[in-house]
Amino acid sequence: MDSNIILVCGGAGFIGSNFVRHALAASAANVVVLDKLTYAGSLENLAHAASNPRFAFVRGDIGDRAIVDDLLRRHPPRWIINFAAETHVDRSIAGPGGFVETNVIATLSLLEAVLRYQKHRNDPGFRFLQVSTDEVYGSLGKDGLFREDTPYAPNSPYAASKAAADHLVRAYYRTYDLPVLIANCSNNYGFHQHPEKLIPRMVLNAIEGRRLPIYGDGLNVRDWLFVEDACEALLAVLFRGRVGERYNIGGENERTNLQVVETVCEILEAEFAAASNQALRAKGVRRYDELREFVPDRPGHDRRYAIDNGKIRSELGWRPHTAFRDGLERTVRWYLTNRRWCASIQSGHEGR
After folding, report:
1. Is position 212 within any domain?
2. What is the pTM of this model?
């Protein structure tokens, strides 16, 4: 491989693996993935790239300085994008320590390694993109949108850990002149998302005749972004964004959690009718939406997220192009036809 390299940290996870696919297809760059293959990462997610001569995989932790230093020597990147993170809010509530370890301390170690690398390499085209979340901004009321200048007000341990990482990345730009960018994305959905997340969980529970748990009244609002649109935006920010800047990336698809679950049930009925689903018939369930169940809300559950895309639209010419219904139909079909992948991920044996 030459030095025209994108290093994708956390590239075996959901968004990361989709980004690898997009980067190989939409650019001439070589792509190197660094991933420690936790429960959320799988080599199966990278099967599409395995035979590509422009792709390489390194197993390791972004917080392992020896591995990162060696990788930067062997595969000197011009661009680095960091997806590596613990991301599930419920897990952060149950055990925040792991989120601080991965999202804050390991990110700091990565920044230290990258700063040393950049000083030695002295490449004026080098860029480091930190992939973050809209959750760092906290919760919106019925009106308004998150802008790049919205103050951070994280409400979950996950969001707090991502906010801390963002502040460190910004500090390395302001203090050490490390050429960084930050992207705050809204709720991604699509192929290869871990079954603990809302949409895949609803699909898999429904077809297995299990309850569809909905927190609180189900009226919490999220801005849904199809993962392929997100990857297109992230590559644009990585290549063409202004160093030192933050870019909000949203799907322009606000939906309540209840609306999402209802739409999943409608699509499932069209793709795999409840009447022909033996798991449902065995339980006397006639329709998928009969499986809905409202459960106690989780602590600190933000009411609404919504993103103003104006900056990335005006500066980079990007905007989402996948309508929510279309993207959700594609997503549901993917989970219906990739049950083996789902079983592998849920078994905890993926990538090992």
Report:
1. no
2. 0.95
Active-site residue set: 134-135, 158
**Band of residue 94 on the pLDDT scale cut at 50, 70, 90:** confident
pLDDT score for 351 = 41
> Among 101, 184, 189, 183, which residue's Cα sits nearest to residue 136?
184
Give the domain range for residue 29: 5-194+224-254+303-322
CATH number of the domain encompassing residue 17: 3.40.50.720
19: nearest Cα among 70, 51, 68, 55: 55
Residue 346's pLDDT band (cuts 50, 70, 90): confident
For residue 148, tell me if it sits in a domain. yes
Q: Give the whole-angstrom CA distance, residue 89 versus residue 87.
A: 6
Domain count, the chain: 1
Q: Is 260 exposed, middle or buried (0-12, 13-18, 19+ CB in 10 A)?
A: buried
- Is 267 part of a structural domain of the chain? no
Residue 282 lies in a domain: no
Report the candidate in 297, 299, 288, 184 with the shortest Cα–Cα distance to residue 230. 184
CB 249 within 8 A of CB 332: no
pLDDT band at 348 (very low <50, low <70, confident <90, very high): low
Question: Could you tell me how far CA 157 lies from the centroid of its own chain?
Answer: 17
Cα 276 from Cα 289, distance rounded (Å) = 15
Measured in degrees and rounded to the nearest 5, phi and psi for residue 88 equal: -90, 120
* Cβ atoms of 105 and 134 closer than 8 Å: no
- Cα–Cα distance for residue pair 197/134, rounded to 1 Å: 16
